[in-house]
What we know:
The chain is of the alpha/beta class and 221 residues long. It has helices spanning 45-52, 75-84, 101-111, 117-126, 142-153, 172-187; strands at 4-15, 19-30, 34-38, 60-65, 68-69, 86-89, 160-164, 192-197, 208-213, 216-219. The protein has a single domain, classed as Rossmann fold (3-Layer(aba) Sandwich).
Amino acid sequence: MMTTVLAASGVWKSYDGRSVVLRDVNLEARAGEAVLIWGANGSGKTTLLSILGGLDIPTKGSVVLGGREIARLKESALAKVRLHDVGFVFQTHNLIDDLTVEENVALPLRLARRPADDRVADLLQTFELVRLAARRPNEISVGEGQRVAVARALANGPKVILADEPTAALDAKGTAAVLVAFELARTSFHAALIVASHDAELPGFSAEVHHLEEGTLRPSG
Length: 221
């Protein structure tokens, strides 16, 4: 049985005590497995991922990552969680324009003051990015940029990858390539993978599926 690396229990999120975005959300993610959360725009997907990754805190409830409750950590401790334990992939790759592909992949390691050479070389090889290593983001396609973003998210060996609409800006070919990259993240690097999408299914992507509607999360299927 795979180890549970992230568990959200009874998570609520509201603003000003009135606008309720998440309602009693419960979710588990296991090492090497994938979860797909689908829902319309405004259903709370981004808010949920932000809470799971320590970018935001719940109004009520618990988020346990790697056996550690993170929902009430101070910001300095949360920053370390985000750097070491969580990898983020967004709708656009958010690469740094002034850095090469190789330097972008290496950035989380540099920030963590860890050796980068062997790890970065492994990631570039695994995700077929070696030929792009010296290029800058404006010299590669959007789909290639997303693959770089996946490699960068894995740099520090996180327990979980959180991806927010990662294929929304891609064509079919780019989507297929990014989904292959996610499969590698899951199978080769044993990260738990949580993907939020407006699509109820992603072609060729095997995952435990949940539907988020008006802040309420339920198993789908």
